[in-house]
């Protein structure tokens, strides 16, 4: 029987007790130590989840038992782990988080010495060590040591403030979801010259204010607060603050694709995004003589292509952006600061986003277990080809993306972190969008 795959598109993630346990964390610590040749040092941070200290203790034990030093930086946003790994000269970083998932979930994500997430190939090597239990040994007097670093937060703040230039007086409402951005994000915006109003910025791993996923269904309070306080901008983070979404001055949640296109246009050159990004990316970059490269879903895939192509900017249409001029770890706080800089200098966000054409855009999720997802996708390409008669191109780099003759497109892809098959599409008309959605959802459901 083949070993079960531990890593998804964003590290290890699952429900506490059944999928993510202290035993798993202990063995991941041992496996990472072996991967690092039972030497070196690792940075560990965690978000606000109530189970994080349990996992931190376990993964630390696994590392130090097998010769690796541990630098603990406590509760921090995910981007600070990537940043700290570079700044502290560590060999790897670990972030304990389940990002936007509910509080009963948790996870483990690994970072390279350059601040970029572990690649799928690296994760496979960790899995191989994990299942073979070939951890190596060190003598009792060679076990790793534990240290704590609180200064790295101040360095992170100072370095972020050095690369943004926000015109003073911008009024911003920040919703941190009671997550890992709750302490640092409001402070950074204030230090950058903004007038800040906070929502859900008390640290609480039960996420009492809202679900940590920053989407329109969870942001009604932020939308109302921006209008009620006559603010210029609303910023929402997910549970670990590696993502960001904005609310404009009218209380409208911004379109993810349009935001990505707006910032990409500012950077110019070559930008990298994923197969689920919309048409406005291509239109925006065409205007400035730039180029769009698409890759698999997942920040590490974007990061790899950015490094290979020396791209100026990259991101996913989920609010996950990578800033090559700072760190190759997704950073929702820096993303928010950059949006604030643009709005402070160029005017109302609603007007800035209005430059992009509105096409009907839909995202659907069909519940499907991890085991079922494999079977469902086996013959999906053939089923989709038979269902549509105007297909121009088929891309199978990550799931199945169909491009149609009129410019419409659809991506059918199994989630790497949750029990869903996702359908993402964009069409030139509402009727075409509904037809594509209904056809794809029906095919998926019939094959579960």
Note the overall shape: globular
Average pLDDT works out at 95
Low-confidence stretches: none
The assigned CATH architecture of the largest domain is: 3-Layer(aba) Sandwich
CATH class designation of the largest domain: Alpha Beta
Catalytic activity: alpha-D-glucosamine 1-phosphate = D-glucosamine 6-phosphate
EC number: 5.4.2.10
Enzyme class: isomerase
Domain Alpha-D-phosphohexomutase alpha/beta/alpha: 5-135, 155-251, 259-357
How would you summarize this macromolecular structure in one to three sentences?
The protein has 448 residues and is of the alpha/beta class. 37% of the residues lie in helices and 22% in strands.
Which keywords apply here?
single chain; 22% strand; 19 strands; Alpha-D-Glucose-1,6-Bisphosphate, Chain A, domain 3; five-stranded antiparallel beta sheet; 448 residues
How would you characterize this protein structure?
The chain has three domains: 12-150, 3-Layer(aba) Sandwich (Alpha-D-Glucose-1,6-Bisphosphate, Chain A, domain 3), CATH 3.40.120; 170-353, Alpha-D-Glucose-1,6-Bisphosphate, Chain A, domain 3 (3-Layer(aba) Sandwich); 361-446, TATA-Binding Protein (2-Layer Sandwich), CATH 3.30.310.50. The model has no long low-confidence stretch (mean pLDDT 95). The chain has 448 residues and is of the alpha/beta class. It has helices at residues 22-35, 52-65, 78-87, 120-132, 151-163, 184-191, 220-228, 256-267, 279-287, 299-309, 332-346, 349-353, 370-378, 380-387, 430-446, and strands spanning 12-15, 41-46, 69-75, 92-96, 105-111, 146-148, 171-175, 195-199, 233-237, 244-247, 270-274, 291-295, 313-316, 320-322, 361-367, 391-395, 400-404, 409-414, 420-426. The chain is 37% helix and 22% strand. A hairpin with an 8-residue loop joins strand 4 (92-96) and strand 5 (105-111). The strands form four sheets. Strands 1-5-4-2-3-6 form a six-stranded mixed sheet, with helices on both faces. A five-stranded antiparallel sheet has the order 15-19-18-17-16. Its EC number is 5.4.2.10.
């Amino acid at each position: 029987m083949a070993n079960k795959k531990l890593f998804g598109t964003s590290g290890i993630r699952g429900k506490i007790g059944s999928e993510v346990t202290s035993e798993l964390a202990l063995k991941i610590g041992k496996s990472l130590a072996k991967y690092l040749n039972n030497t070196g040092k690792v940075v560990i941070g965690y978000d606000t989840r109530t189970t994080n200290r349990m996992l931190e203790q376990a993964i630390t034990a696994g590392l130090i038992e097998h010769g690796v030093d541990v630098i603990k930086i406590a509760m921090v946003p995910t981007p600070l782990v990537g940043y700290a790994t570079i700044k502290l000269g560590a060999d790897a970083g670990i972030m304990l988080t389940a990002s936007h998932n509910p509080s009963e979930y948790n996870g483990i994500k690994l970072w390279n010495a350059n601040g970029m997430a572990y690649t799928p190939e690296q994760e496979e090597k960790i899995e191989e060590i994990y299942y073979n239990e070939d951890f190596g040994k060190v003598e009792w007097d060679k076990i790793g040591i534990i240290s704590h670093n609180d200064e790295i937060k101040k360095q992170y703040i100072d370095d972020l403030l050095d690369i943004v230039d926000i015109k003073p007086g911008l009024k911003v409402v920040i919703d941190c979801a009671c997550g890992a951005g709750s302490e640092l994000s409001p402070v950074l915006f204030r230090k950058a010259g903004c007038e800040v109003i906070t929502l859900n910025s008390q640290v609480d791993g039960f996420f009492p204010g809202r679900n940590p996923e920053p989407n329109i269904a969870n942001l009604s309070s932020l939308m109302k607060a921006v209008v009620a306080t006559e603010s210029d901008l609303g910023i929402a983070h997910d549970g670990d603050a590696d993502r960001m979404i904005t609310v404009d001055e009218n209380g409208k949640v911004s379109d993810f694709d349009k935001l990505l296109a707006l910032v990409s246009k500012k950077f110019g050159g070559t930008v990298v995004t994923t197969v689920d990004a919309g048409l406005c990316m291509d239109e925006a970059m065409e205007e400035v003589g730039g180029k769009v490269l698409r890759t698999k879903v997942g920040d590490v895939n974007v990061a790899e292509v950015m490094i290979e192509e020396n791209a100026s900017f990259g991101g996913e249409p989920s609010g996950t952006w990578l800033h090559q001029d700072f760190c190759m770890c997704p950073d929702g706080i820096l993303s928010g600061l950059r949006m604030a800089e643009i709005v402070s200098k160029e005017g109302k966000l609603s007007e800035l986003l209005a430059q992009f054409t509105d096409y009907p855009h839909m995202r659907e999720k069909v519940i499907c277990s991890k085991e079922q997802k494999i079977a469902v996708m086996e013959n999906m390409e053939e089923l989709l080809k038979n269902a549509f008669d105007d297909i121009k191109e088929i891309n199978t780099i990550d799931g199945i993306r169909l491009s149609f003759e009129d410019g419409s497109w659809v991506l059918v892809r199994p989630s790497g972190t949750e029990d869903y098959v996702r359908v993402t599409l964009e069409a030139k008309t509402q009727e075409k969008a509904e037809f594509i959605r209904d056809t794809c959802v029906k095919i998926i459901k019939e094959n579960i």
